[in-house]
Amino acid sequence: MLGRTVLVSTAFFAILCGWFQLVRFSTTAGEQSPAPVLLPADLVPSASQPLLLVFVHPQCSCTAATFEQLDRLLNQATQSVELVLVVYDSAAFHGRPPMDASTPLHHHRVLVDTGGRLARRFGAATSGEILLYSPARRLLFQGGITPGRAHAGDSPGSQALLAAIDSGRPTPSTFQNTVFGCPIFRLAHPG
Amino acid sequence: MPSKPSNPAPCTPQPDLLGVEAEVRRQVTNHCRRIDRNFAWLMLLQWAFAIAYALWISPLAWAGDTSYLHPHVSLAIFYGGVLTLVPVLFIRYAPGQRVTRFVVAVTQMLMSALLIHLAAGRIEAHFHIFGSLAFLAFYLDLQVLLVASAIIALDHYLRGVFLPFSIFGSYEPQPWRWLEHTGWFIFCDVFLILGCSSRRRGLREAAKRHIERAALLRRAHYDALTGLPNRSYLSEWLKDAIREAEANHSCFSCLYIDLDRFKEINDQLGHSGGDRLLAEIALRIRSRLDDGAFLARIGGDEFVAIILEVDSKPLHGEEVARSILRAFSQPFRDQETQIPIGVSIGISAYPRHGSDEAELLHHADQAMFRVKRVGRNHYLTYSSQLFAADAERAIAESDLLRAIRQDELSLHYQPIFRTGLHNHLIGFEALMRWTHSVRGNISPAHFIPLAEETGLIVRLGDFALHEACRQATDWRHRGLLQGSIAVNVSSLQLAREDFAESVILTLRQHYTPPEAIELEVTESALMQDFSLAERHLRQLRDFGIRISIDDFGTGYSSLGRLRKLTLDTLKIDRLFVEGVATSEADRTVVEHIIGMAHTLGMKVVAEGVENETQLQTLCDLGCDYIQGFLLARPQDRDKTELLLQNLAKDKTPNLPAP
Questions:
Q1: Least Cα separation, residue B113 to chain A (angstroms)
Q2: Is A26 in contact with B117 (Cβ distance < 8 A)?
Q3: What is the C-alpha to C-alpha distance for residues B93 and B305, in angstroms, rounded to an integer?
Q4: Which terminus of chain A has a lower count of CB atoms within 10 Å, N or C?
Q5: Is B222 in a helix, a strand, or coil?
Q6: How confident is the model over A106-118, as pLDDT tens digits?
Q7: Given an 8 Å threshold on Cβ–Cβ distance, is B171 in contact with A7?
Q8: Cβ separation B166–A148 shorter than 8 A
Q9: Across the interface, do B67 and A59 touch by the CB < 8 Å criterion?
């Protein structure tokens, strides 16, 4: 009887710890740093439509949720955007199969960001970070669009991005959208 | 409470309600044990699947160029491991118990929650919940089902409040979605609960039928008084035991146990007391048997125990028999009465003493019967040498019975003479003769001992008395006989409570005057139950019948007791008469016997007188009467009657030498 009680109590404690870890991982946001308010001209000489930059770590499985949600949003948006995937590249990935690049997204360009220079330049420290610039190169949106790590679905970030795309103007929550994903680089070691 | 049928059939057993519930619980427990085992395998597979699934979705997490095991994989391994191993341990060490079912239900639902989380809340993952509930429904335990449903509902509620995106795909709590999910659970539960109820009803019906069948079987196979298996069950069990022993080359003993003097004890105690006695006998015997032994009551006061041999030692049965006998050293106490009890035990062994159940039981019964004959309260192991003669004896006994029924028996009469100058005839001794329809004359030395062993001597004695009375009445009526006819009485006849009354009744039936009959009783027969014999003889003498003590000097008697009896005649055995003229010792013995008898007021008859020298010596010693071949051989009725007629015609008591 005592053994049974000890076992059940230990199991109960382990279950609580497990749930705590599960919740913590799902809700811990990635690091962020402010993106340039104006899109650097040397990167994009001119733009006829809003530019949507999606910074991804090629091995981060959680980013699939970002793609899924982004696809949903772009289908809802009334305006079209130019979509660029900035994919972090490193020698460490060579020989590994990347996260499935055949995303549900359509009509996008892929930019290979060797060593994460661009990610650092734009402050996109976490995979899944999205930046929206207007044709006038002004920052309309920065952050993530998923409610939790690896979870697609509605979130304040996805609502703000959709509003920004449709209105062409920044929203009050433009710079307050948390992003969930694997770190591309650590802010403490910007490189 | 189940309703009772209005007109129950007389032999329909009414299932005991407690028995039905206990049987249902037993069946549910057995059923749950099987489900537990299946669940253990299911949960182990599920755990493996959760790890594989986590690895497939996201095996690694990255930070820049550095990878590490994805937390989902770690959680699937460790958290999933806790959710799997805890119920598996309960299943292993407490299978079929209620607490195990609850542990399985809780952990299974938490595993569902984990899988849903790993699948990022996809609706497809929710089917795991319904599948789990359906499996839990196999337990047929409504509370377990409700607990499982409560767990998953609580999980959905909490996650709906704190992690809505993990369930509903939105960052905002959506109560109606939670209600929708809960509604699906309830919908599923309703069907599962209905299914459980139906299955439990079926179980209850099956339990009732099982108990009815068990009660019928019990009545068919068990003794109602002692609760022991009965004869038919013993027969089936013994057949199986023989088959198994034959296959394993093992052996066992068969003990046939019979209570001594059960009829007398039962008459003393009454039927209810007799029943209590039998119940206690069963307990005492059972207490001396180990768990592997089989004990049955096969009828009346007879029990059979089957003892498996230890290390193939064939004498284990004897050890058990001795132990059983010790158990009966204490008397039976019934209310204020204490009655000494004992058992006779016959032992046979498989395969030495028989190869089938009938043979084994028969041999054990034979051995037990032999124990009864030689003194009771003991045991004997059957042996073919010891009982080889029994077969012949059984045939002879059957033959003798037939002889009694078919009038092959008759009386011969040997004259007894007074000693003295004229050898006056004073009477006859009636001797049994058997003229077999095929074999001719059978010597009394052959059939008299057989009759004594089998108890047929009583019937022979009754026949002899009837015949002697009839003949004595006839001869007296015709004036042929003035003396008496002496009839031998066996110890078995003397042991009957109504012996004296039956003798008197016989004389009255044949209108025989008591002085026409004399009864000869051996000294050994007198001593077997002296007080009873004394009572009989006093009654008979009071009626007027003469009593003589036969074969004096060859048995074991107490002179102190003999002098209490009022006897008329003492017959000296032929053993002493044979040497009376040639042996000084025999002469001295005969002289003293004659002196003692005369002192006690008895006449003396010398048997087996075969020559003149013996006759003369006996006369010199004062012997009163003579019987023997010297003077006359036993003759049948017709020749004896002719002798009497000649004596009457001659009006002389003298007889020529044969």
A1: 10
A2: yes
A3: 38
A4: N
A5: strand
A6: 667 888 888 889 9
A7: no
A8: yes
A9: yes
Separation CA A180–CA A30 (nearest Å): 5
Chain A residues inside the 8 Å CB shell of B156: none
Which chain B residue has the Cα nearest residue A91?
A: B65
Q: Which residues of chain B lie closer than 8 angstroms to A183, CB-CB? A: 62-64
**Nearest-CA distance A132 → chain B (Å):** 22
Identify all chain A residues contacting B94, using CB atoms and an 8 Å cutoff. 4
Residue with tokens 């130019």: A82
Beta strand segments in chain A, E: 51-56, 82-89, 108-114, 129-133, 139-143
E strands within B313-357?
A: 332-334, 337-339, 343-350
Instruction: Compute the Cα dihedral for B365, B370, B375, B381 and give only its sign.
Output: negative
Fold of A31-167: Glutaredoxin (3.40.30)
Q: Which residues of B touch A92 (CB under 8 A)?
A: 65-67
Question: Is A26 close to B99, i.e. CB distance below 8 A?
Answer: no
Q: Are B530 and B561 a contacting pair, CB within 8 Å? A: yes
**Residue A70 Cα, gap to closest chain B Cα (Å):** 14
Measured in angstroms, the CA of B127 and the nearest CA of chain A are apart by: 19
Residue B615 token pair: 């006759």
In 3D space, the residue among B260, B362, B267, B257 whose CA is nearest the CA of residue B302 turns out to be B257
B64 → chain A, closest CA residue: A184
What are the b/e assignments for B137-161, b being 16+ CB within 10 Å? bbbbbeebbebbbebbbebbbebbe
CA-to-CA dists, residue A166 to A37, A106, B148, angstroms: 19, 19, 46
Using CB atoms, which residue from B79, B89, B172 is nearest to A18? B79
Sequence-distant (6+) residues with CB within 8 A of B237 are B229, B294, B296, B306
The answer for residues whose C-beta is within 8 angstroms of residue B128's C-beta and 6 or more apart is: B111, B112, B115, B116
What residues of chain B lie within 8 A of the CB of A18, using their CB?
A: 75, 78-79, 82
DSSP string, A65-95: HHHHHHHHHHHH-SS--EEEEEEEE-GGGTT
Q: What is the pLDDT of residues B10-63, one digit of tens each?
A: 233 344 556 778 888 888 888 889 999 999 999 999 999 999 999 988 888 888
A151 and B75 within 8 Å at the Cβ level: the answer is no
The reported pTM is 0.52
The DSSP element (H or E) to which B290 belongs, if any, is: none
Residue B556 burial class via C-beta count within 10 angstroms: exposed 0-12, middle 13-18, buried 19 and up: exposed
Instruction: Compute the distance between CA of residue B646 and CA of residue B652 in angstroms, rounded to an integer.
Output: 9
Q: What are phi and psi of B212, to 5 degrees?
A: -60, -45
- Parallel/antiparallel/unpaired status of strands B343-350 and B379-381: parallel
User: Could you give the maximum distance between any two Cα atoms of chain B, in Å?
Assistant: 157
> In DSSP terms, which residues pair with B339 in a beta bridge?
B332
The answer to whether A11 touches B90, Cβ cutoff 8 Å, is no
Alpha carbon of B120: minimum distance to chain A alpha carbons (Å): 5
Interchain pair A25, B72: CB under 8 A: yes
> Which of these, B561, B491, B549, lies nearest to B525 by C-alpha position?
B491
- CB–CB contact A25 B117 (8 Å): no
Q: Where are the domains of chain A?
A: 1-29, 31-167
